[in-house]
Amino acid sequence: MSTDIPLRPILPRNLTARADHLVAGNPMTARPESGVGNAHPGLEFDVRVLDRHFLPGLKFDFQYGAGAKLAALVPAENPALPALTEDDLTQGLFLLLVKARFGKDPTRNAVVRLAGVDGYLVLRHIIDLEPGTRTVIVGPLPNSQDDRDRLVRIQTALETNGALPALQRGDGGELVYAMVTGKRDSFLTPDGVIDPDLIPPGELTQNLCSPWQWDFADCYCYYWASSKPDIVVGITGDAQVLNFQRDRTEAEPAKPASTPAEWMAGNMTETDLILNWETLPIVTSDREGVVPRRPEWPLIDPAQIMTLAQIVQELPSLAGLEHALCVEYLFAKYSIAAPATPPSHWRKGARQRYQAQQEIFSIAIDEMRHFRWVNEILRLLGQPPAMARAEVIGKDLRREFAPRSLKPDVLDQFIAIEAPSSIYNDDPQQLDGMYTRILVSLHHIVMPEQEDLRFRLKQLIKTIIDEGGDHWDRFRRVKSHLAGQKPASYLHQIAALEIVPPAPWRSVQSLCDDYYLLLLRALFVTFMLGRKSRGRWLGVSHLAMFALDSAATFLVQNGYGPRFKRADWPKDFSFLFASDKSDLRYARQLNELIPTSDIVDQIFQPALVTLDSLRGGTGRVNSFLIDQVGRMSSMKSAVQAALAEASTASR
Amino acid sequence: MTVLPISAKLKQFSSSAGQHLFIVGGSRIYDIDDATAKSLERALLLDGIEPIPVEIAALLDRGPAGPPSAPAGAPKITALSLNVAQSCNMGCGYCYAEQGTFGGAKKVMSPETARSSVDRLLQWAPADSRVVVAFMGGEPLLNRELLHSTVRYAAAAAQRSGHRCAFSLTTNATLLTAADAELFADYPFSITVSIDGPAGVQDRQRPMLGGQASTVRTLRGLEHLLRRRPRQLDARMTVTAQSGPLVPVLDHVLALGFDAAGFAPVVAAPRPGTEIHGAATAQFTEAMIDCGRHALAKLLAGERYGFANLLTALHELHKGSARAHPCGAGAGYLSIDADGDAFGCHRLVGDERFRFGSLAEGIDDERRFHHLSDHAVDLQEPCRSCWARYLCGGGCYHEVAARGRTHCDYIRGWLGFCLEAYATLGTARPDLFGPLPSR
Fold this sequence. Notes:
The complex is a heterodimer. Chain A is an alpha+beta fold. Chain A has 21 helices and 14 strands. Chain A has a 5-stranded antiparallel sheet with strand order 5-4-6-8-7. Chain A has a two-stranded antiparallel sheet with strand order 2-3. A two-stranded antiparallel sheet of chain A has the order 9-10. Chain B is built from 14 helices and 14 strands. In chain B, β6 (130-137), α4 (144-161) and β7 (164-171) form a beta-alpha-beta unit. In chain B, α9 packs parallel to α14. In chain B, 46% of the residues are buried. The A-B interface holds A 1, 5, 7-22, 24 and B 20-21, 23, 26-33, 35-36, 53-56, 59, 62-64, 317-320, 322, 422-423, 426, 436-439.
């Protein structure tokens, strides 16, 4: 419609007329700044950028909730810019008033007050500006009655063309307000394209939605990244309730916040989250990881720094210790009489037992992984795998390795061994302390030409330290889960391991031993071959672990425990460490470990014999047998597939 | 498709608040200036020669052109009226129901039929919806025991099925007791009392069956209702060709203590002589508008004045109601007669053209759907070119079936007045309409 035809005033009166009047054309949510694609803060470009230059010399940011904040000064654009400085911007200056002609009455100037108005609403006024001269007042947002009164006086002066100094400062030199006048007709060139001198390439897209950036503060649409996980709740519902956004420089709250104010009080600001994102923990398996900290090398007595040879000497015993702890924790896990799946909320006791069991299980899995990492380090250093299990645990608190039920005193010992060295003692004899000492030593050891190796060794040690960091805490949580229950009620009654069980439990117990051995053999091959094994043998070890888990669980339910019978390992593996680094090495090593398929049969033979002895049992034993036969056959296929792959590789 | 005249798309009118425009599509009401009003007047006069102002053409182009499009099937039933007593203790000369018999034998509804009706209603209505059970007659209180037991039964059944159940009753009040009033106050009832005015009018138009005066008996019944008020208490005043001026009637009836009172003209009656037609229609229109002005003056003075015809019209105009049908008969509403047969509404009982099944054989939804499709106002003549079509919906099925569309001038005249009243009150008493979105 041509604008020179006077518009007839037609005003809607009833509800349908008003609705029609408002929603004619696109719905109001289709304003350019309303779409999440264009703003909040934009997926393709940020439409707010187009209008941030509406006044030459100033650059604004239209902030959700806050207002139009003065983001930058561009003195070259506006010779009439008053004496504002970059320092003034740090005060936090906002667009307070605009005097200009607006679209709704383009015939005359109007003054619009924008102090305290949401940035997106400010933007609507700015989009509505007619081309030509504009005057704005910028300053800190008014926060007292005096400030508000002053703003009214300034507004009146603007409306009545009264005299107004261009800039006013307080006694301390802080800016009270500044008045800026300029003329801007469009952000487009005469050809109708966005003026590249005004809005340089990149500016339109500089501020888009990126997970964990400003969008989670600015987001309007509950886009996933804006829905940061404020609360971390474990799989069992009440294992851990923490405010993700809490300030981690403060102590962890003893109990979760119960009021919004309490909740907010412990929060980091959005800005802090962005500036210090690297201090946020990663959440995996329903649990917050350890908060990574900037590495600070502890001051250490130079005499404590180990040589590479000393480290090599220390590692097998560390591996043995991890192995021994893993088995002890596993046995403790099996000793708890807990259901296999999370029980409903009203079965409180069963839930607590389930939580305790899951907690210990996850620690045992960590130890198994550490066992693997230590062996990986040994492999990197050209050493044979350390498969043996420690017979004695701890140096200060020496005690014999023994699979035991999780009685309170046993739990206390676990807590003690996992205590961070700084809590329990300063001597690096604790597991944690020894790894720390190795890490610090690796930091100081001179390894010319082997920087890459040193880096990888440090990473592995660091991983072990990081993963073990919260074992102490988690064992204490186990204690609190079990606090209200008597050992007699939460533990299976398990006969002493020395007692030989009657049939068929004797066979199930043997089967556990067979699986344990299979598991260690598969791990041994993995450790020997390293990456070349392509995870095939690790897969076999997983199958063996699950089979062991099901057999041990079945066994404890019937009053007997898995023995974890110790296996003997050859002492000399040097024949496996040929100087040959070619692609054939994997096949050759494997060939030396498992020279014929008869060996495979030999490996599985004991377990198959044991399984056979279970035939003809009762219904429950029979179902168990069927399940185990299936598991055995999967393991065998996995081994055969690994061998077939090796044979292809060797051709 | 024939091109509709401009007068079928919009209506220009004025009020004390200025010049206005009613756009038929979407029942939208606008304020316009004098110049636009003049241009529009010329365009309406010289339809096809003088174009309408472009801004108004733009308004016609956008927004809904008609009522909401017809649904793909028959809507769910949420209201039933039960003709619990097809007989009456009064002998009103104009009665469409012929003393409740609808021209047949006197009947009362059995408790089984009443309960079965309630059960069916709760089955048919969408889950969690509001349902209405209305009691009609004849005079429903002639079957008091059934009425009382059905109310209790329906309330309990609705509670079980998760529906909200409301009740309504139309009565002559002559048989109404304190116990009845108790029931109507205890349950969510809208009570409509048929009363035609002061004793002179009432006794002439609404004698008892034996010819005795009814006023004293009606007022005695009303007394119980006023002592124990139901949620809503309205009066329905029938106007015949002999009724005379209506303002005194309205004042009199409202003064009796009703929340609201409305007039209904006799358009189709079995007995001749009472119907309003021909010259009487114009007189009736004048009399209604007189009542409207009387009510408008009261409302402008800030008073409450329950002239139901006006208040309902103002409410619908404010909302911008646009309807394809005159009422919910055969749509969300059915009426069950004493034998359990289902008709479009209480006035259509016994009319085979509007029979949609029965409790025993079930409801014929396809027939209901065809009834609605066939009666869409845009298919009716002369409705399809009338500016008031989406406000009126085509006129009462019962009246149109009996007499044709003989009262269109009255409807347009009355709605024209209501439009003016809406504009006047919208400016002077915006509080009557609640908060408005900005314009």
